[in-house]
Amino acid sequence: MKLIQKIEDYTILYKDSRSQIAEFLIHNKDDLNNYSMNDISKQTYSSKTTLVRFAKSLGFSGWKELIKTLIEEIRYEETHYSAISPNIPFDKNDSFQKIVQNISTVQIESINDTADRIDTAALEEAVGKLIGANRIVVLGMSPNNLLAEIFRRKMATIGKIVEVAPPGEIGIIAYSLTNKDTAIVISYSGNDVSREPMKFIPDMNSKGVKLIGITSDGYNYMRQEIDTVLTISSREGLYKKISNFSTEESILFILNVLYACFFSTEYIKHYTYKLKNSIKLEESRRIRQMDLKE
């Protein structure tokens, strides 16, 4: 998750000085160069020590490092993306045509951002883990498990069976895996160790299960525990948004890339298998249609 989204989340998660500081940074993000630490301290009714604690809670060594990183991130956003927010891409006064254009822009930018962030070395490792797996299982909460169903179906069309752990059974599936299996773990934040599917990562690691993580940018628990990670476009916040327009598109794109790269490892074999079975399925559909007509 990007720094700006983490700061936005503080405005909801906390009701103390952290929320006040976060609100100030969000509302004045385009003019942060004009404010000294002393200025921000006065305007947020916080001590300089509190500002330093705020920065450290976000993983920085101090206030200056936080502000420098935040300004750099804001400049990158301004030069690489449109002004349309992935969190609130339309408002109550926008026409349907405007909404269509804005959602299109958000999703295209999400795919482009995801493509730019794909580490080809990590991608090769991930595909290798899929190739050698006895079982492939996708672990993720809704709606990530729903996106995984599309991946499961695509892999099935080339003869590779993928399981998607159903809600309430992630633990059962995770505990059943061995060192011959591969698990794809999907979580946007990748941080809450007490929640599924992250809570099962230590057990899977201890058994030698091959893990592929799909999570947001930046340091988090999943990146610490999983050595093969693919990065979701990380421009959405966890709370202040209309829907997961950007995140869902990003996750689906990563899963599509995994499928395509897996397909390419034995291109002729997979294409032949898919074509052969497509013809068989189409023939069976035609027979059923003829039976119905009779």
Automatic annotation (TrEMBL):
InterPro entries (UniProt xref): Homeodomain-like_sf, HTH_RpiR, RpiR-like, RpiR-like_SIS, SIS_dom, SIS_dom_sf, WH-like_DNA-bd_sf
UniProt keyword list: DNA-binding, Transcription, Transcription regulation
Recorded superkingdom: Bacteria
Gene3D superfamilies tied to this protein: Glucose-6-phosphate isomerase like protein, domain 1, Winged helix-like DNA-binding domain superfamily/Winged helix DNA-binding domain
Coiled-coil annotated residue ranges, if any: none
UniProt keyword Transcription present: yes
Ranges for domain SIS: 126-268
Domain HTH rpiR-type as annotated: residue spans: 1-77
Alphabetical list of PROSITE patterns matching this protein: HTH_RPIR, SIS
Gene Ontology molecular function: carbohydrate derivative binding; DNA binding; DNA-binding transcription factor activity
Any GO BP: carbohydrate derivative metabolic process
UniProt protein name: RpiR family transcriptional regulator
